[in-house]
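Many introductory courses stop at the sequence. We go one step further.
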Amino acid sequence: MARTPKHIHPQVAAVGARFDRHEYLLSDDEENSALLIQGLAAGDKDFVLFIPLEPVEPLRPEGAAALRVGDIVNVDGVIAPVKEMFQSTISGSDSDTPPDARDREPLFGFIGQTNSTVLLVRWANDRITFHRGRSFSEKAVSGAFSKR
């Protein structure tokens, strides 16, 4: 049985855009976790459901910070071009902050994308997290939650 989603509200700054994003930490009784994000890009209403990745040879925060849009990354066998770089700050939450963030601390990140997979990599000076995701329409997600 899934537990109640925990809502997190980060403010995001990307090149040429500043916007709010809605993130939901999901977990089940076996402590499996997922991250559901609405508004991955400015003006986007669709959702991306992410599961954590633990690469055998992960990027370090310094390596991630050196990447630029268009660079190709390989995260746990998912090879994708970097589509967007961003900085975010948690501005509010109805629960604890997510495991990769601390309240009001800037968190840096990039999004990589193939045809069917979205990579989300976020870091601060002392840590880095990796997520693999798939996009869903706003209608599909709201329909899934309304059936509960």
